[in-house]
Write a structure and sequence with these properties.
This protein is of the alpha/beta class and 459 residues long. Helix content is 31%, strand content 20%. Helix 1 (14-25) packs parallel to helix 5. 55% of the residues are buried. Residues 7-438 form the FAD-dependent oxidoreductase 2 FAD-binding domain.
Length: 459
Protein backbone atom coordinates (compact mmCIF):
# COMPACT_ATOMS: atom_id res chain seq x y z
CA UNK A 1 0.00 0.00 0.00
CA UNK A 2 3.04 2.31 0.01
CA UNK A 3 2.42 5.47 -1.98
CA UNK A 4 4.61 7.82 -4.02
CA UNK A 5 3.93 11.46 -4.89
CA UNK A 6 5.63 14.79 -5.49
CA UNK A 7 5.08 16.41 -2.09
CA UNK A 8 3.83 14.90 1.16
CA UNK A 9 1.92 17.35 3.35
CA UNK A 10 1.02 16.53 6.96
CA UNK A 11 -1.99 18.53 8.13
CA UNK A 12 -5.20 19.75 6.53
CA UNK A 13 -5.57 23.31 7.81
CA UNK A 14 -4.76 26.63 6.16
CA UNK A 15 -1.03 25.99 5.79
CA UNK A 16 -1.53 22.48 4.43
CA UNK A 17 -4.08 23.40 1.80
CA UNK A 18 -2.29 26.61 0.80
CA UNK A 19 0.80 24.49 0.16
CA UNK A 20 -1.16 21.78 -1.63
CA UNK A 21 -2.85 24.23 -3.98
CA UNK A 22 0.39 26.12 -4.64
CA UNK A 23 2.20 22.90 -5.58
CA UNK A 24 -0.71 21.61 -7.65
CA UNK A 25 -1.02 24.83 -9.61
CA UNK A 26 2.65 24.42 -10.53
CA UNK A 27 1.84 20.95 -11.88
CA UNK A 28 3.05 18.78 -9.01
CA UNK A 29 1.34 15.77 -7.45
CA UNK A 30 0.48 16.05 -3.75
CA UNK A 31 -0.74 13.73 -1.03
CA UNK A 32 -2.15 15.56 1.98
CA UNK A 33 -2.51 13.57 5.19
CA UNK A 34 -5.05 14.65 7.81
CA UNK A 35 -5.39 12.47 10.88
CA UNK A 36 -8.81 13.85 11.84
CA UNK A 37 -11.99 12.74 10.05
CA UNK A 38 -12.49 16.26 8.69
CA UNK A 39 -10.27 19.01 7.31
CA UNK A 40 -9.79 22.43 8.87
CA UNK A 41 -8.17 21.88 12.25
CA UNK A 42 -7.54 24.98 14.34
CA UNK A 43 -7.60 27.15 11.21
CA UNK A 44 -11.32 26.49 10.77
CA UNK A 45 -11.98 27.42 14.42
CA UNK A 46 -10.11 30.73 14.50
CA UNK A 47 -11.48 34.25 14.30
CA UNK A 48 -10.94 34.45 10.55
CA UNK A 49 -8.59 37.44 10.63
CA UNK A 50 -5.71 37.86 8.19
CA UNK A 51 -3.15 40.66 8.38
CA UNK A 52 -2.54 42.07 4.91
CA UNK A 53 -1.26 45.49 3.84
CA UNK A 54 -1.73 47.64 0.74
CA UNK A 55 -4.86 45.83 -0.43
CA UNK A 56 -7.71 47.09 -2.57
CA UNK A 57 -10.03 46.72 0.43
CA UNK A 58 -7.88 49.07 2.47
CA UNK A 59 -7.84 51.58 -0.35
CA UNK A 60 -11.63 51.38 -0.64
CA UNK A 61 -11.84 52.10 3.11
CA UNK A 62 -9.49 55.07 2.83
CA UNK A 63 -6.62 53.30 4.62
CA UNK A 64 -3.01 53.91 3.61
CA UNK A 65 -0.79 50.92 4.36
CA UNK A 66 2.25 49.17 2.93
CA UNK A 67 4.33 46.03 3.19
CA UNK A 68 7.09 48.05 4.84
CA UNK A 69 4.79 49.42 7.55
CA UNK A 70 3.50 45.89 8.14
CA UNK A 71 7.09 44.68 8.46
CA UNK A 72 7.87 47.40 11.00
CA UNK A 73 4.74 46.66 13.02
CA UNK A 74 5.44 42.92 13.10
CA UNK A 75 8.97 43.54 14.32
CA UNK A 76 7.81 46.00 16.96
CA UNK A 77 4.92 43.97 18.35
CA UNK A 78 7.23 40.94 18.53
CA UNK A 79 9.60 43.10 20.60
CA UNK A 80 12.32 42.33 18.03
CA UNK A 81 12.54 38.78 19.35
CA UNK A 82 11.25 37.50 16.02
CA UNK A 83 13.38 36.38 13.09
CA UNK A 84 13.85 39.35 10.77
CA UNK A 85 14.21 37.10 7.73
CA UNK A 86 10.86 35.41 8.43
CA UNK A 87 9.14 38.73 9.06
CA UNK A 88 10.54 39.96 5.76
CA UNK A 89 9.29 36.82 4.01
CA UNK A 90 5.82 37.48 5.40
CA UNK A 91 5.80 41.16 4.44
CA UNK A 92 7.19 40.63 0.95
CA UNK A 93 4.73 37.87 0.03
CA UNK A 94 1.54 38.91 1.82
CA UNK A 95 -0.05 41.07 -0.86
CA UNK A 96 0.45 38.44 -3.54
CA UNK A 97 -1.06 35.84 -1.21
CA UNK A 98 -4.10 38.05 -0.61
CA UNK A 99 -4.71 38.26 -4.35
CA UNK A 100 -4.05 34.53 -4.72
CA UNK A 101 -6.64 33.73 -2.05
CA UNK A 102 -9.21 35.84 -3.88
CA UNK A 103 -8.49 33.99 -7.12
CA UNK A 104 -8.94 30.72 -5.23
CA UNK A 105 -12.48 31.74 -4.30
CA UNK A 106 -11.93 33.07 -0.78
CA UNK A 107 -14.48 35.74 0.16
CA UNK A 108 -13.36 38.74 2.24
CA UNK A 109 -15.60 41.04 4.27
CA UNK A 110 -15.64 44.57 2.76
CA UNK A 111 -14.95 46.16 6.15
CA UNK A 112 -11.43 46.59 7.59
CA UNK A 113 -10.70 46.91 11.33
CA UNK A 114 -7.65 47.75 13.43
CA UNK A 115 -6.60 45.29 16.08
CA UNK A 116 -3.66 44.07 18.14
CA UNK A 117 -0.25 45.21 16.93
CA UNK A 118 -1.56 47.24 13.99
CA UNK A 119 -0.72 50.91 13.59
CA UNK A 120 -3.42 51.16 10.88
CA UNK A 121 -6.49 48.97 10.27
CA UNK A 122 -5.48 45.82 8.42
CA UNK A 123 -7.74 43.02 9.69
CA UNK A 124 -9.12 41.30 6.61
CA UNK A 125 -11.99 39.05 7.66
CA UNK A 126 -13.03 35.71 6.21
CA UNK A 127 -15.15 32.81 7.34
CA UNK A 128 -12.28 30.48 8.27
CA UNK A 129 -14.07 27.18 7.71
CA UNK A 130 -15.38 28.34 4.33
CA UNK A 131 -11.86 29.49 3.42
CA UNK A 132 -10.36 26.05 4.06
CA UNK A 133 -13.18 24.44 2.09
CA UNK A 134 -12.59 26.84 -0.81
CA UNK A 135 -8.87 26.02 -0.96
CA UNK A 136 -9.60 22.29 -0.66
CA UNK A 137 -12.16 22.45 -3.46
CA UNK A 138 -9.80 24.36 -5.73
CA UNK A 139 -7.00 21.88 -4.95
CA UNK A 140 -9.29 18.99 -5.81
CA UNK A 141 -10.22 20.65 -9.11
CA UNK A 142 -6.58 20.55 -10.20
CA UNK A 143 -6.64 16.76 -10.20
CA UNK A 144 -3.21 16.84 -8.57
CA UNK A 145 -4.10 16.63 -4.86
CA UNK A 146 -5.12 13.50 -2.99
CA UNK A 147 -6.49 14.11 0.51
CA UNK A 148 -6.38 11.19 2.94
CA UNK A 149 -8.54 11.60 6.05
CA UNK A 150 -8.05 9.63 9.23
CA UNK A 151 -4.43 9.19 8.14
CA UNK A 152 -2.05 9.82 11.04
CA UNK A 153 1.60 10.40 10.24
CA UNK A 154 3.78 8.44 12.66
CA UNK A 155 7.46 8.95 11.86
CA UNK A 156 9.61 10.72 9.30
CA UNK A 157 11.45 8.48 6.83
CA UNK A 158 15.00 9.37 5.78
CA UNK A 159 17.41 8.08 3.18
CA UNK A 160 19.83 5.89 5.09
CA UNK A 161 22.82 7.14 3.14
CA UNK A 162 22.14 10.88 2.74
CA UNK A 163 19.84 11.51 5.69
CA UNK A 164 17.39 13.34 3.44
CA UNK A 165 13.75 13.22 4.53
CA UNK A 166 11.63 11.71 1.78
CA UNK A 167 8.50 10.41 3.44
CA UNK A 168 6.44 9.45 6.47
CA UNK A 169 5.02 6.30 7.92
CA UNK A 170 1.23 6.47 8.20
CA UNK A 171 -1.51 4.65 10.07
CA UNK A 172 -4.99 4.61 8.58
CA UNK A 173 -7.85 2.26 9.44
CA UNK A 174 -5.50 0.10 11.49
CA UNK A 175 -3.04 -0.34 8.62
CA UNK A 176 0.53 0.97 8.44
CA UNK A 177 2.15 2.10 5.23
CA UNK A 178 4.60 4.67 3.87
CA UNK A 179 4.01 7.77 1.77
CA UNK A 180 7.06 9.17 -0.02
CA UNK A 181 7.54 12.39 -1.95
CA UNK A 182 10.23 13.36 -4.42
CA UNK A 183 10.01 16.89 -3.01
CA UNK A 184 10.14 15.74 0.59
CA UNK A 185 7.75 16.33 3.50
CA UNK A 186 5.99 19.50 4.59
CA UNK A 187 4.82 19.56 8.20
CA UNK A 188 1.68 21.68 8.63
CA UNK A 189 0.27 19.79 11.59
CA UNK A 190 -0.39 22.70 13.97
CA UNK A 191 0.71 23.30 17.53
CA UNK A 192 0.16 21.49 20.82
CA UNK A 193 -2.51 23.33 22.79
CA UNK A 194 -4.30 19.98 23.26
CA UNK A 195 -1.25 18.36 24.84
CA UNK A 196 -1.31 19.21 28.56
CA UNK A 197 2.11 17.64 29.15
CA UNK A 198 3.85 19.79 26.52
CA UNK A 199 2.00 22.93 27.62
CA UNK A 200 3.13 22.32 31.20
CA UNK A 201 6.71 21.77 30.02
CA UNK A 202 6.92 25.14 28.28
CA UNK A 203 4.19 27.28 29.90
CA UNK A 204 3.21 25.94 33.33
CA UNK A 205 1.56 29.26 34.16
CA UNK A 206 -1.22 28.24 31.77
CA UNK A 207 -1.89 24.83 33.28
CA UNK A 208 -5.38 25.91 34.36
CA UNK A 209 -6.21 28.09 31.37
CA UNK A 210 -8.96 27.43 28.87
CA UNK A 211 -7.62 25.54 25.84
CA UNK A 212 -9.29 25.89 22.45
CA UNK A 213 -7.94 24.39 19.26
CA UNK A 214 -8.20 21.51 16.87
CA UNK A 215 -8.52 18.13 18.54
CA UNK A 216 -5.47 16.96 16.60
CA UNK A 217 -3.18 19.70 17.93
CA UNK A 218 -1.10 17.53 20.23
CA UNK A 219 2.36 18.23 18.82
CA UNK A 220 2.95 15.02 16.90
CA UNK A 221 4.53 16.88 13.98
CA UNK A 222 6.89 18.63 16.37
CA UNK A 223 7.88 15.32 17.92
CA UNK A 224 8.60 13.76 14.55
CA UNK A 225 10.91 16.64 13.69
CA UNK A 226 12.53 16.71 17.13
CA UNK A 227 13.33 13.03 16.81
CA UNK A 228 15.69 13.75 13.90
CA UNK A 229 17.35 16.76 15.48
CA UNK A 230 15.13 19.74 14.62
CA UNK A 231 15.56 22.83 16.77
CA UNK A 232 12.74 24.96 18.14
CA UNK A 233 12.28 28.57 19.22
CA UNK A 234 9.91 30.99 20.99
CA UNK A 235 8.71 28.30 23.40
CA UNK A 236 8.91 30.76 26.30
CA UNK A 237 6.46 33.04 24.48
CA UNK A 238 3.46 30.72 24.64
CA UNK A 239 0.63 32.96 25.75
CA UNK A 240 -3.09 32.91 26.26
CA UNK A 241 -5.35 35.26 24.34
CA UNK A 242 -7.27 37.75 26.42
CA UNK A 243 -11.04 38.16 26.17
CA UNK A 244 -12.41 34.61 26.37
CA UNK A 245 -15.54 34.28 28.50
CA UNK A 246 -14.51 31.91 31.32
CA UNK A 247 -17.69 29.82 31.42
CA UNK A 248 -19.21 29.97 27.93
CA UNK A 249 -18.48 26.76 26.02
CA UNK A 250 -20.30 27.57 22.80
CA UNK A 251 -18.53 30.76 21.72
CA UNK A 252 -14.83 30.06 21.20
CA UNK A 253 -13.87 33.59 20.15
CA UNK A 254 -12.41 36.34 22.26
CA UNK A 255 -14.24 39.60 22.79
CA UNK A 256 -11.95 42.63 22.80
CA UNK A 257 -14.00 45.62 23.86
CA UNK A 258 -10.75 47.09 25.21
CA UNK A 259 -9.74 47.77 21.60
CA UNK A 260 -12.73 50.09 21.27
CA UNK A 261 -12.14 51.94 24.53
CA UNK A 262 -13.16 49.64 27.38
CA UNK A 263 -10.88 49.14 30.37
CA UNK A 264 -9.91 45.88 32.06
CA UNK A 265 -10.33 45.51 35.81
CA UNK A 266 -9.62 42.69 38.25
CA UNK A 267 -11.70 41.34 41.11
CA UNK A 268 -10.68 44.35 43.19
CA UNK A 269 -12.20 46.71 40.63
CA UNK A 270 -8.80 48.06 39.62
CA UNK A 271 -7.03 48.34 36.28
CA UNK A 272 -3.96 46.18 35.92
CA UNK A 273 -2.59 46.73 32.41
CA UNK A 274 -2.29 49.01 29.39
CA UNK A 275 -5.33 47.77 27.49
CA UNK A 276 -3.99 48.72 24.04
CA UNK A 277 -1.19 46.16 23.93
CA UNK A 278 -1.24 42.81 22.14
CA UNK A 279 -3.95 40.51 23.44
CA UNK A 280 -1.24 37.93 24.04
CA UNK A 281 0.40 40.29 26.53
CA UNK A 282 -3.04 41.10 27.92
CA UNK A 283 -3.48 37.37 28.43
CA UNK A 284 -0.27 37.20 30.45
CA UNK A 285 -1.42 40.10 32.62
CA UNK A 286 -4.86 38.56 33.11
CA UNK A 287 -3.61 35.15 34.18
CA UNK A 288 -1.64 36.81 36.98
CA UNK A 289 -4.77 38.39 38.48
CA UNK A 290 -6.76 36.72 41.29
CA UNK A 291 -8.43 33.57 39.92
CA UNK A 292 -7.14 34.48 36.44
CA UNK A 293 -10.46 36.24 35.87
CA UNK A 294 -11.13 39.89 35.01
CA UNK A 295 -13.82 42.13 33.50
CA UNK A 296 -13.88 44.43 30.51
CA UNK A 297 -15.89 47.51 31.48
CA UNK A 298 -17.62 49.55 28.76
CA UNK A 299 -20.50 51.93 28.27
CA UNK A 300 -23.26 52.21 25.69
CA UNK A 301 -21.17 54.27 23.28
CA UNK A 302 -18.39 51.70 23.23
CA UNK A 303 -20.90 48.88 22.83
CA UNK A 304 -22.35 50.61 19.76
CA UNK A 305 -18.88 51.17 18.27
CA UNK A 306 -18.42 47.43 17.80
CA UNK A 307 -18.31 45.71 14.43
CA UNK A 308 -20.63 42.79 13.72
CA UNK A 309 -18.43 41.72 10.80
CA UNK A 310 -15.39 41.18 13.03
CA UNK A 311 -15.94 38.41 15.56
CA UNK A 312 -13.69 39.81 18.27
CA UNK A 313 -15.50 43.17 18.06
CA UNK A 314 -19.10 41.93 17.79
CA UNK A 315 -20.31 43.28 21.13
CA UNK A 316 -24.00 43.33 20.26
CA UNK A 317 -23.90 39.61 19.59
CA UNK A 318 -22.30 38.94 22.98
CA UNK A 319 -25.09 40.98 24.57
CA UNK A 320 -27.75 39.00 22.70
CA UNK A 321 -26.10 35.77 23.81
CA UNK A 322 -26.41 36.83 27.44
CA UNK A 323 -22.65 37.04 27.96
CA UNK A 324 -22.56 40.76 28.72
CA UNK A 325 -23.59 41.88 32.20
CA UNK A 326 -25.69 45.05 31.97
CA UNK A 327 -26.68 47.70 34.54
CA UNK A 328 -28.04 51.23 34.50
CA UNK A 329 -25.34 52.57 36.82
CA UNK A 330 -21.76 51.71 37.64
CA UNK A 331 -22.75 51.01 41.26
CA UNK A 332 -25.29 48.45 40.11
CA UNK A 333 -22.77 46.93 37.70
CA UNK A 334 -20.19 46.57 40.47
CA UNK A 335 -22.73 44.76 42.63
CA UNK A 336 -23.61 42.36 39.81
CA UNK A 337 -19.99 41.41 39.15
CA UNK A 338 -19.14 41.40 42.87
CA UNK A 339 -16.33 43.94 42.87
CA UNK A 340 -16.12 46.77 45.43
CA UNK A 341 -18.41 49.56 44.10
CA UNK A 342 -16.29 52.36 45.53
CA UNK A 343 -13.14 50.93 43.96
CA UNK A 344 -14.76 50.60 40.53
CA UNK A 345 -16.13 54.16 40.73
CA UNK A 346 -12.69 55.52 41.58
CA UNK A 347 -11.11 53.47 38.78
CA UNK A 348 -13.54 54.81 36.18
CA UNK A 349 -13.27 58.41 37.41
CA UNK A 350 -9.48 58.25 37.44
CA UNK A 351 -9.37 56.76 33.95
CA UNK A 352 -11.74 59.37 32.57
CA UNK A 353 -9.43 61.99 34.02
CA UNK A 354 -6.53 60.42 32.17
CA UNK A 355 -8.56 60.54 28.93
CA UNK A 356 -9.29 64.24 29.47
CA UNK A 357 -5.65 64.97 30.23
CA UNK A 358 -4.46 62.97 27.22
CA UNK A 359 -2.07 60.98 29.39
CA UNK A 360 -2.28 57.74 31.38
CA UNK A 361 0.57 57.93 33.92
CA UNK A 362 -0.53 54.69 35.58
CA UNK A 363 -0.10 52.25 32.69
CA UNK A 364 0.91 54.43 29.74
CA UNK A 365 -2.12 53.82 27.54
CA UNK A 366 -2.14 56.29 24.64
CA UNK A 367 -4.41 54.66 22.06
CA UNK A 368 -7.29 52.23 21.71
CA UNK A 369 -5.14 49.51 20.15
CA UNK A 370 -1.42 49.64 19.45
CA UNK A 371 -0.87 53.08 17.86
CA UNK A 372 -4.40 53.50 16.54
CA UNK A 373 -7.44 55.37 17.87
CA UNK A 374 -8.05 58.06 20.47
CA UNK A 375 -9.07 57.13 24.01
CA UNK A 376 -12.72 57.61 24.99
CA UNK A 377 -14.43 58.27 28.29
CA UNK A 378 -16.65 55.67 29.94
CA UNK A 379 -19.65 57.78 30.92
CA UNK A 380 -22.83 56.91 29.00
CA UNK A 381 -25.19 54.37 30.56
CA UNK A 382 -26.19 51.68 30.50
CA UNK A 383 -22.89 50.08 31.46
CA UNK A 384 -21.58 46.62 30.67
CA UNK A 385 -19.07 44.11 31.98
CA UNK A 386 -17.68 41.22 29.97
CA UNK A 387 -16.11 38.48 32.14
CA UNK A 388 -12.74 37.71 30.58
CA UNK A 389 -9.95 35.22 31.05
CA UNK A 390 -7.01 34.07 28.93
CA UNK A 391 -7.52 31.14 26.58
CA UNK A 392 -4.78 29.27 24.76
CA UNK A 393 -6.01 29.18 21.17
CA UNK A 394 -2.63 28.25 19.75
CA UNK A 395 0.99 27.89 20.75
CA UNK A 396 2.57 30.08 18.02
CA UNK A 397 6.03 28.65 18.56
CA UNK A 398 7.87 25.59 17.39
CA UNK A 399 10.32 24.52 14.74
CA UNK A 400 13.19 26.68 13.59
CA UNK A 401 12.96 27.38 9.88
CA UNK A 402 14.79 29.57 7.41
CA UNK A 403 13.16 31.97 4.93
CA UNK A 404 12.74 29.03 2.55
CA UNK A 405 10.66 27.22 5.19
CA UNK A 406 13.34 24.54 5.53
CA UNK A 407 13.45 23.01 9.00
CA UNK A 408 16.77 23.63 10.78
CA UNK A 409 18.61 21.40 13.20
CA UNK A 410 20.25 22.47 16.46
CA UNK A 411 23.32 23.63 14.53
CA UNK A 412 21.29 25.86 12.24
CA UNK A 413 21.69 23.53 9.28
CA UNK A 414 18.79 22.50 7.08
CA UNK A 415 17.34 19.02 7.49
CA UNK A 416 17.19 18.23 3.80
CA UNK A 417 13.77 17.36 2.48
CA UNK A 418 11.89 18.66 5.53
CA UNK A 419 9.78 21.83 5.41
CA UNK A 420 7.27 23.35 7.80
CA UNK A 421 4.58 26.04 7.80
CA UNK A 422 1.76 27.32 9.97
CA UNK A 423 1.42 27.10 13.72
CA UNK A 424 4.10 24.42 13.98
CA UNK A 425 6.86 26.95 13.27
CA UNK A 426 8.39 29.60 15.50
CA UNK A 427 10.20 32.78 14.59
CA UNK A 428 7.57 35.05 13.09
CA UNK A 429 5.69 36.32 16.13
CA UNK A 430 8.45 36.65 18.70
CA UNK A 431 7.39 37.91 22.12
CA UNK A 432 3.85 38.91 21.15
CA UNK A 433 1.40 38.75 18.29
CA UNK A 434 -0.38 40.81 15.66
CA UNK A 435 -4.01 39.97 14.96
CA UNK A 436 -4.25 38.09 11.70
CA UNK A 437 -0.60 37.10 11.50
CA UNK A 438 -1.20 33.47 12.50
CA UNK A 439 -3.72 32.69 9.76
CA UNK A 440 -1.75 34.96 7.45
CA UNK A 441 1.45 33.09 8.27
CA UNK A 442 -0.23 29.78 7.51
CA UNK A 443 -1.30 30.90 4.04
CA UNK A 444 1.90 32.74 3.13
CA UNK A 445 4.38 30.25 4.56
CA UNK A 446 2.42 27.28 3.22
CA UNK A 447 2.84 28.64 -0.29
CA UNK A 448 6.53 29.45 0.24
CA UNK A 449 7.22 25.99 1.64
CA UNK A 450 5.64 24.34 -1.39
CA UNK A 451 7.71 26.49 -3.71
CA UNK A 452 10.91 25.63 -1.88
CA UNK A 453 10.17 21.90 -1.82
CA UNK A 454 9.21 21.63 -5.47
CA UNK A 455 11.95 24.05 -6.49
CA UNK A 456 14.51 21.80 -4.83
CA UNK A 457 13.09 18.89 -6.80
CA UNK A 458 13.39 20.79 -10.09
CA UNK A 459 16.97 21.75 -9.25
Amino acid sequence: MDLQTGLVIVGGGMAGFAAALEAAEAGHEVILLEKQPDIGGSSAMCGGCLAFAGTDLQQENGITDSSELLFEDLREVGQFENDEALVRAYADNQLDTYEWLKRAGVKFSPHIEASSGQSVPRVHNVDPADTIRALAARAKETGKVRVMLGAAAQRLVRNQETGRVHGVTVRQDGKDFQVSGTGGVLLASGGFCRNAELVHRYAPQYDNAVFIGGDGNVGDGLKMAWQIGADNRDMIYIKGTYGKHPTDETNHHSCLAVYKGAIAVNQDGKRFVNESISYKLLGDACIRQPYGATYQILDQSILESGDNLTRILDFERRLEEGLMIQADTLEQLAALIEVPPAALMVTIATYNGYVDAGMDPEFGREHLVHQHGELVRIETGPYYAYPSTAAVFGTYCGLCIDAGMRVLDVYGEALEGLYAAGEIVGGLHGAAYMTGSALGKAAIFGRLAARSAMGATSA
